[in-house]
Design goal:
391 residues, alpha/beta, Rossmann fold, 2 domains, five-stranded mixed β-sheet, 11 strands
């Protein structure tokens, strides 16, 4: 089975950029503390809670950190929301402005309450540039967590989620190279239009290329699947796929121009699932198979609607519970971590970000913050279901 975590950790260690900053809104959970203690080498960690509250939680619940309590408290950045009056005022003003004319428009009192809520406070920390990303979702229902993120964080559309699986060795061989398969979109867009579908396909393939090295997957073979193979069926969803297909060459050419390594991405469309993943079926149903190099070799499956994508994700997650997987990741049209940093030596010194900002009643003065996962995935400092970046 492909060592997903180890590969991602190795890539992160080679990144020659300042540490990003990550804020955890769920402040009373031992799992957050454990995950945070594993991330100090990769990100600056901020928790919106008084320092003494964090320390008391660790001691009272006897949380088994990766580092000593003393080191943890020295490296952690804490912000006391109740004492952060300037930030509360700033966030309240911004919330009132953002909600104007919208269904969720707030009164002054409601905006003040929102600004004191740990989740909203953390989201606004990202929006206003005091942090780079937020990681949460342990205690919040998906709707309660993602709705304010989508409302309050600037984003490029479409936003989508992908699910990446490294299937166990017991999975039938010869279907997915290295037993790696990705599904998208699995959680956000019920019925994307043609341009959104094209962007989801391109963005997903780009992300997978950034995550998985060419030595493991020489090509990223994306396929938009449907119930038709190259004209064998008709219908509204087929027309949608064909419209998306027309947009793909220009979008793919622009991506390759930006980074020649993306020439290893191939995207097919209007294939049935069997034709997408079986070379035998592809040779049987596609006449000029030589003109469709990704057919029968798909490792990235793009779907036309959320019913299909969500069902695929849960089918594989249930059937192969022992697989390695990144739980569904939420992305914008992505600007990802570079996987080929030009300088693989030492990291540059982190830029000073909000170091020493008089607005922040910090227990320790350092810099920004984000990216990553909890417990056994806490070292995958890339893209997590519950992580949101701004912009």
């Amino acid at each position: 089975m492909y060592a997903l975590e180890r590969n991602l950790e190795d890539q992160i260690k080679r990144i020659d950029k300042p540490k990003p900053g990550l804020i955890f809104p769920e402040i009373n959970d031992a799992r957050v503390m454990i995950a945070a203690s594993k991330l100090f080498d990769y990100a600056d960690i901020l928790i919106p809670s008084p320092q003494e509250n964090v320390k008391n939680l660790i001691i009272t619940e006897k949380i088994a950190l990766e580092v000593s309590v003393e080191e943890f408290m020295n490296r952690l950045i804490t912000v006391d929301i109740d004492e952060s009056h300037l930030l509360q005022n700033e966030f309240q003003t911004e919330l009132l402005k953002l909600g104007q004319g919208k269904k969720w428009q707030l009164s002054t009192k409601e905006a003040a309450e929102w600004a004191r809520n740990p989740l909203i406070f953390s989201i606004m920390m990202v929006r206003k540039g005091y942090a780079n990303a937020i990681l949460g979702g342990l205690h919040y229902a998906s709707k309660d967590y993602f709705t304010p993120c989508l409302r309050l964080l600037e984003k490029e559309k479409p936003v989508f989620e992908l699910g990446l699986f490294v299937l166990p060795d017991e999975h039938p061989s010869g279907i997915f190279k290295e037993n790696i398969v990705v599904f998208s979109d699995v959680a956000i867009n019920p019925a994307p239009n043609a341009e959104a579908l094209a962007n989801i396909a391109l963005g997903t393939c780009k992300i997978v290329r950034d995550l998985i090295p060419e030595s493991v997957l020489p090509t990223i073979n994306g396929t938009i699947v449907c119930y038709s193979t190259k004209g064998s069926g008709e219908g509204a969803s087929i027309e949608l796929v064909r419209e998306a297909e027309k947009m793909m060459p220009a979008k793919l050419a622009a991506l390759r121009k930006d980074d020649p390594s993306y020439t290893t991405i191939q995207i097919e469309s209007e294939l049935q699932m069997s034709v997408a993943i079986s070379e035998k079926a592809a040779r049987k149903k596609i006449k000029a198979i030589e003109n469709h190099p990704a057919a029968g070799k798909a490792n990235v499956i793009i779907v036309t609607n959320l019913d299909f994508g969500n069902s695929l994700y849960h089918l594989y997650a249930t059937t192969w519970p022992e697989s390695l997987k990144l739980p569904p990741k939420r992305f914008q049209n992505p600007k990802l971590l570079s996987r080929r940093p030009s300088n693989l030596s030492k990291r540059k010194k982190p830029h000073r970000g909000w170091l020493g900002s008089p607005r922040l009643p910090l227990s320790r003065k350092r810099l920004l913050l984000p990216q990553n996962n909890l417990q056994n995935q806490s070292r995958l400092l890339c893209h997590q279901k519950t992580m949101f970046r701004n912009g």
